[in-house]
Design goal:
Elements: H1 2-34, H2 57-64, E1 69-73, H3 82-98, E2 113-123, E3 129-138, E4 144-151, E5 157-164, H4 174-189, H5 198-203, E6 206-207, E7 213-220, E8 231-238, E9 241-246
Antiparallel strand pairs: 1-2, 2-3, 3-4, 4-5, 5-9, 6-7, 7-8, 8-9
Length: 247
């Protein structure tokens, strides 16, 4: 009877000990089996979706002025492909060339190419956000270039900067060049800006006495909301080029 009691006690202790050691033994066995292997949980594809797909061009420009919270994003998350953006930039620069705004021989223009590009997500007001491409388009020597900000939804050139380090406009040409600059830019924005006149903007431009620069401005309220105020686009021209900026 005493031997039977000792046997039962031994079995009880063994069960307790095995219960304590079993998880470790199993874990060690599994670790040995999976050693040298890397396992990944399945991940859903990342996509950007905007609740407000009906954003107007005026609102798109207002988001830029000035640029609010900006986040760099991979180009794979953009709607446009890089090849399409490159064509948009080349065509836009060609329009400025045909308008007589470039300071170089038009025959040199085919030598321009895209030299830099990034995509950014800009957070705007009223839960409206937008993706833009920022590109630089230049000649091989780097003496003349365009800097453009392009709307990823529509392919519209929203901002442009042109510089030439070797040539300049004559003082008597500044008014005509500014008018052409304003007109070409506004035409590129589409029908929302058809009521604005490049000639009217240039006719009200500020300038210094020597006409080394001229600056015109266009104001509009994109949101119809006093909290956000109006947007101002400034068209700036100096002897070596032109650019837009937003306030």
């Amino acid at each position: 009877m005493k031997a039977r009691s000792l046997f039962l006690a031994f079995c009880a202790v063994s069960v307790i000990a095995l219960g304590a050691l079993l998880p470790g033994l199993v874990g060690k066995k599994l670790d040995t089996a999976e050693r040298g292997k890397i396992q990944f949980a399945p991940v859903q594809e990342v996509r950007l979706e905007f609740a407000d797909s009906g954003i107007t061009m005026k609102q798109t420009l207002a988001i830029m002025g000035p640029l609010r919270d900006v986040v760099n994003i991979p180009q794979e998350l953009a709607t446009l492909k890089r090849s399409k953006v490159e064509r948009v930039a080349a065509e836009a620069a060609q329009r400025y060339n045909q308008a007589g705004l470039l300071l170089r021989d038009p025959g040199d223009f085919s030598r321009y190419s895209m030299v830099g590009d990034i995509t950014v997500l800009v957070y705007g007001p009223e839960t409206s956000s937008n993706v833009f491409w920022i590109v630089d388009y230049a000649d091989p020597e780097g003496n003349s270039w365009f800097h453009m900000i392009i709307d990823d939804r529509t392919g519209t050139v929203c901002s442009v900067e042109y510089r030439d380090l070797e040539n300049e406009y004559g003082s008597g040409e500044m008014g005509k060049i500014l008018e052409g600059f304003c007109r070409t830019y506004l035409e590129g924005l589409g029908e929302e800006f058809f009521d604005y006149s490049g000639a009217d903007l240039a006719g009200k431009a500020d300038q210094d006495a020597e006409q080394t620069y001229m600056a015109a401005q266009l104001r509009f309220d994109a949101w119809d909301n006093p909290l956000y105020g109006e947007t101002r686009i400034v068209f700036f021209l100096n002897r070596n080029g032109f650019y837009t900026y937003f306030e």
